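Continuing the series of single-chain predictions for the mutant panel. This is the parent chain; the variants come on the following pages.
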Amino acid sequence: MWRLSLRFVALARSGQVGFVATNLAANLIVIVRSYVTMQALDYRDLGVVTVMQTVMMLVGTLQFGVLNGGYRLLCSADAEEGKAINNVAYSCFAIIAVASLVAGLVVDGMFAANVALWITLIGISAGALTLIRSWVNNQMIAAGMLALLNRVTIWSALLSLLPLLLLDRMPLTACILSVAVQPALFVLVVLGAQPALRPGAWSLDHTLLRRIFTAGFYIFLSGMLLQLNAQIERWYVVRDLGLDALGHLYLAFLVINLFAIIPNAMQSLFLPRIVRAWDRRDGEAVSGDMRRLALGSIVYCVGAGLLLIFAAPPIISLILPRYADDLLYVYLILPGLILYTVGSAIGVIFNVLIRYRSYNIGFGAGTVLTVTAFAAAPLFAIRYSLEEVSVIKSAAYGLSGAIFLAGFWLLSREFEIFRFGARGKAEAR
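Parent structure:
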């Protein structure tokens, strides 16, 4: 216990706790922005904002493993290889941005007839910038540039509130711009301040691309299955229940996004450490960091869950009384979300070992459940309520999380270095 305490003190001094705290502070700013949005807009306009964020989220995940695989290789790359990876990554992002724009123009009339084209285009642009922000964020973590990362994260979040000054004149536009401007500010400031993080040349080096895709494609595929679930449920609500109904889920989607920020930040911080310890086969370091990541995720989930159960009702009733009934959807999703969050933290082992079978099975099972449930609706003349949509989402999350935990257990039997009690040097497998 004493040694574990010393490790936490060392983490705090290294700036890593500051990184997590900065993400928490940035999320508090996002909460403020969301509060203003929910006060200023009606349910239909909230549904429009949710559509824009859905497009943004989809484009931000259409990276075919470049983001995941590139980051995994950056964790152990030297300076020269890091530059080559960066050039390949930006070249791929440019192709993705152009392809997304063309696809958005083609399908806008088919799937978003009730949403203006400019909203779809902003969603696509913001999604591309979010993808670049995620890459730059990973670069800075891998390079240990946490102090600058913390400052830019906070300031970009604060400055994203400026468009809200236009609320009286154009409330929907102001709210949408407030969401889109945050990744844009982040990318512009960091790339302006750090030339080393900019791409140096156009490159689609086949050998490097193959390595990146090998390291990242399967985890990307798993993430896309999760996004497919979100797309299916949201477009089902829009089509069968209407934009107003989607607006009632705005609070639940907000909670889901905020709930994931701290666990994702912890995983981003621990992944390079565990990769380096794995490369040198340091059993004590690997198992210790795995133990701290698991414990931190569990403590966070328990604390956040209790806050949602006991603190959210009086707070929402006080500051957002018309959304008090929408807390029901949050609580229906919460059990599966907690299991998924803990399973994802433990599942960092899949990324370290570049063995993604459990990810694929877990996300695949969640997608099969989601597709089956929503495909059954028209076949059997079922019209799901928002409560039933929330239960389906929770079940998909929970099924994926349970499979991640099972996958960790199986791999830790094969690679003893990842067991929480491992000590000393481990032999390579």
